[in-house]
Design brief:
Helix content: 40-55%
CATH class of the largest domain: Alpha Beta
Strand order of the largest sheet: 2-1-3
Low-confidence stretches: none
Number of domains: 2
Radius of gyration: 19 Å
Distance between the termini: 16 Å
Mean pLDDT: 93
Structural class: mainly alpha
Largest sheet: 3 strands, parallel
Number of helices: 14
Oligomer: single chain
Length: 294
């Protein structure tokens, strides 16, 4: 199950796990980190206490993680859960993580250490400029707010000698291993929920949490709100300005998540706007899942 941040994935995943005898496996590139549960909107203690959760809050803030590492860890969790006669419920907003499971991973050329060192030594603006020169269509295919994605895209284009779209074409076939859902909400509904979530983060102490996580590595520091709150702590913006910046960044991220969910997966879409109660949400999800091939 995937969808934009703020759609209600965590609560529905727990409800499904309770109904189906399952356990939740996270698929979020930021919720993997320990030390930032508020900022990354990890499941609340109440939800965590109801069913076992995996791949959430387990990684040190200094460590890096990628889709290949996620796929290995997730398959280990899936096999363990199934070996105990239970149902794995995968949920998260990082489409690349989920696609590593639904479609597998693309075989890429062997890493060229000299090329990677050259790319890593360049300012990210220069890397993006070179990527635009070598493959003008590539920037529209990646998150250009993410320096790691920009550098990796250029590396792939240079290693393969072909556009990024060509390399991804082999990664277009869903293996049919999972039934799933893409959760969405109407635009105004999602915006309201995102704004409310940011307010709740501040009320829960997210500023202190980020202040205590100053040693975070590049991966964890990309979590939406991390740099904005650091600016707040340095006196470079007010609290209201920080909240507004976080809401805007989250809305933009949610838009990218929606696009990914609709274009990269074959899962049916479930719009939760207007679904009044948790019971109704669960019922709607089960009706769709029951209609899908096993």
């Amino acid at each position: 199950m995937t969808g934009p941040t703020g759609a209600g994935k965590s609560a529905l995943a727990v409800a499904l796990a309770l109904r189906l005898g399952g356990e939740v496996v996270g698929a979020d590139a930021f919720q993997i980190y320990a030390g930032l549960p508020i900022l990354t909107a990890q499941a609340t203690e109440d939800l965590l206490s109801l069913v076992p959760h995996h791949l959430i809050g387990f990684l040190d803030l200094k460590q890096g993680f990628d889709a290949a590492m996620y796929a290995k860890a997730a398959w280990r969790c899936i096999r363990d859960i199934e070996s105990r006669g239970r149902v794995p419920i995968l949920t998260g907003g990082t489409g690349l993580y989920l696609k590593s499971l639904t479609h597998g991973l693309v075989e890429m050329p062997k890493v060229d250490a000299d090329l990677r060192a050259r790319i890593n030594a360049l300012p990210v603006e220069d890397v993006l400029a070179e990527l635009c020169e070598k493959d003008p269509a590539a920037p529209a295919m990646i998150d250009t707010r993410n320096p790691v994605r920009i550098r990796r895209a250029l590396e792939i284009v240079l290693l393969t000698g072909q556009p990024l779209a060509e390399s991804r074409s082999a990664w277009s076939q869903d293996k049919g291993l999972f039934r799933g859902l893409v959760l969405i909400r109407d635009r105004n509904d999602l915006r309201s929920r995102i704004a409310a979530n940011v307010e709740a983060m501040f009320a829960a102490g997210v500023v202190d949490e980020v202040q205590a996580a100053e040693h975070a590595g590049e991966g964890a520091a990309r979590a939406i709100g991390f740099h904005e709150i650091q600016q707040l702590l340095r006196g470079e913006m007010t609290e209201s300005e920080c909240k507004a910046a976080m809401v805007l960044a989250t809305q933009r991220y949610a838009k990218r998540q929606l696009t990914w969910g609709r274009t990269q997966f074959t899962f049916p879409i479930l719009n939760l706007s207007g679904v009044a109660t948790p019971e109704a949400v669960l019922s709607a999800a089960l009706d769709i899942l029951d209609s899908l091939p096993p």
